[in-house]
């Protein structure tokens, strides 16, 4: 699709200004996840899904105060007003927000959200967590820190928790929040790998051979 190629070229430089947890390689992996899910969801609109994936983090609050960037990019695309609004709603439903997520109302929204969350778990999810933690100067782990099971979006975003704590506050919850059958299947192995990693990390920290 010409529109997808053109949009990729526009957003690549934006994402590559972010740290390694949210760079353009992240977007490429989410596209790959979305394509895998789309194979099992033939009724979904592929163009809508891919445009939403390409734009879903351009206005991420962690990196920019420009809340209108995704709207500016959307306005430049030859899309109907209805499709633009659907893409905006998809993007709004992607974020976890400390468990205060918005409802993914359409199949396309469910695909984008699952595809993004699959990149937050497994081996890649582990790497991204520590990449982000390193960029923000966070501790690797803090045994005195309790994972929060209930919090507002502001509380979720404002506290610099240790990277391992993030597993318990978000990453280990994502498997059960997948919305598509393919997403659920893909999440199983990645979730198991995270559990194995945390067990090994605990052993090494405690000096258990």
UniProtKB/TrEMBL annotation:
<dbReference type="InterPro" id="IPR003607">
    <property type="entry name" value="HD/PDEase_dom"/>
</dbReference>
<keyword id="KW-0378">Hydrolase</keyword>
<feature type="domain" description="HD/PDEase">
    <location>
        <begin position="19"/>
        <end position="130"/>
    </location>
</feature>
<dbReference type="InterPro" id="IPR006674">
    <property type="entry name" value="HD_domain"/>
</dbReference>
<protein>
    <submittedName>
        <fullName>Phosphohydrolase</fullName>
    </submittedName>
</protein>
<dbReference type="Pfam" id="PF01966">
    <property type="entry name" value="HD"/>
</dbReference>
<dbReference type="GO" id="GO:0016787">
    <property type="term" value="F:hydrolase activity"/>
</dbReference>
């Amino acid at each position: 699709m010409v529109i997808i190629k053109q949009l990729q070229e526009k957003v690549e430089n934006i994402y590559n200004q972010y740290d390694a947890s949210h760079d353009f390689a992240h977007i490429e992996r989410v596209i790959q996840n979305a394509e895998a899910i789309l194979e099992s969801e033939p009724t979904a609109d592929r163009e809508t899904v891919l445009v939403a994936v390409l734009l879903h983090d351009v206005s991420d609050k962690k990196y920019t105060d420009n809340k209108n960037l995704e709207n500016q990019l959307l306005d430049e695309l030859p899309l109907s007003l209805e499709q633009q609004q659907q893409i905006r709603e998809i993007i709004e439903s992607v974020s976890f927000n400390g468990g205060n997520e918005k409802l993914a109302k359409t199949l396309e929204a469910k695909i984008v959200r699952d595809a993004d969350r699959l990149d937050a778990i497994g081996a890649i999810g582990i790497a991204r967590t520590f990449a982000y933690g390193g960029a923000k100067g966070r501790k690797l782990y803090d045994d005195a820190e309790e994972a929060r099971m209930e919090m507002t979006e502001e509380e979720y975003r404002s506290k610099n928790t240790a990277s391992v704590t993030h597993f318990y506050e978000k990453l280990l919850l994502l498997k059960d929040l997948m919305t598509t059958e393919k997403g659920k299947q893909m999440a199983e192995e990645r979730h198991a790998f995270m559990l194995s990693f945390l067990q090994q990390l605990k052993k090494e920290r405690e000096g258990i051979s």
